[in-house]
Amino acid sequence: MMSRAPRILVFDSGLGGLTVFREIVRARPDAIYIYMADDAGFPYGAWREPDLVARLLDQMAGLIAAHEPDCVVIACNTASTLALPALRARFATPFVGTVPAIKPAAERSRSRLFSVLATPGTVARDYTRDLVRSYAGGCDVTLVGSTRLAVMAEAQMHGEPASDAEISSEIAPCFVSIADSDGTVRRTDVVTLSCTHYPLLLARLMALSPWPVTWIDPAPAIARRVVQLLGPSPAGSLPGEASALFSAGVPGPSVRQALAGFGVDCHTPATAG
Ligand code: DGL
Asked: What is the DSSP string of the chain?
């Protein structure tokens, strides 16, 4: 077990990873956090796979050299479902990924009808399709690749919220009714938040749902994984600190204010990209 506070790098294409970061901080309040938003590459959802792998390897090389983290959390489903094997092969630092919560969704769905709400990249991945094959037997799974929801979440953090109608049309495909051969009607009862940006919109998603469902946010499970890897906070440890880096440069006042709400200082140097 290490005697100094661990350094944890939390990485996303934008501000969505803050939804994972806030859970990890609850579990390891003493750690030193570096939050990296590769906002110059945002959104990742539409990138060609080989280009995105190359970008992630390149970004990570700079970040690991500059910050020497004890652990990297890829707080992005679009990146994790694609590049975790390549990152683990290239770097000795342990990586924790964020991937669609398909097993928990299958366990929690009573109607055996659940939806995976993600980016187009994540729903297209072999990794995601394999999770469905391995863990969702007996369930009807609707994969919904939203082209705009991550952009809407990011815009909301920049002080420009999307309209109710815009959000409703993005989530509408998640809500499915199926009439079985015996006449029973089953409805979607669980939706996974499989892009880390989506929990930023959770209150609005709940208010705009055509009917109530259980929304699954994987962040608490990721925080538990980090504690498994690094151990718990030692007794009597002092609170750590968190700073953020943006590949596109210093963000505006609304983002800085949002970051402060998450307990993160915004630093100027962009060390990657
Ligand atoms: N936050 C990222 C995820 O979890 C995706 C946002 C993007 O498209 O860049 O998938």
From this structure: --SSPPEEEEEESSSTTHHHHHHHHHH-TTSEEEEEE-GGG--GGGS-HHHHHHHHHHHHHHHHHHH--SEEEE--HHHHHHHHHHHHHH-SS-EE-----HHHHHHH-SSSEEEEEE-HHHHH-HHHHHHHHHH-TTSEEEEEE-SSHHHHHHHHHTT-PPPHHHHHHHHGGG--EEE-TTS-EEE--EEEE-STTGGGGHHHHHHH-SS--EEE--HHHHHHHHHHHH-PPPTTPPP-EEEEEETT----HHHHHHHHHTT-EEP------
CA of 4 to the centre of ligand 1 (A): 32
The CATH architecture of the domain made up of 7-98+220-271 is 3-Layer(aba) Sandwich (3.40)
76 catalytically annotated = yes
- Of 80-94, 118-132, 242-256, minimum mean pLDDT range: 242-256
The CA 234 to ligand 1 mean position distance, Å, reads 33
Mean pLDDT of 177-190: 94
195 as an active site residue: the answer is yes
pLDDT number for residue 92: 98
Say if 7-98+220-271 and 102-217 have the same CATH topology. Answer: yes
Mean pLDDT of all residues in 22-48: 96
Per-domain residue ranges of the chain: 7-98+220-271, 102-217
Look at ligand 1, atom 2, and give the residue with the nearest C-alpha: 76
Q: Tens digit of pLDDT for each residue in 133-171?
A: 999 999 999 999 999 999 999 999 999 999 999 999 999
CA of 137 to the centre of ligand 1 (A): 27
The catalytic residue among 71, 76, 139, 174 is 76
Domain 102-217 falls in which CATH fold? Rossmann fold (3.40.50)
> Quick check: pTM over 0.70?
yes
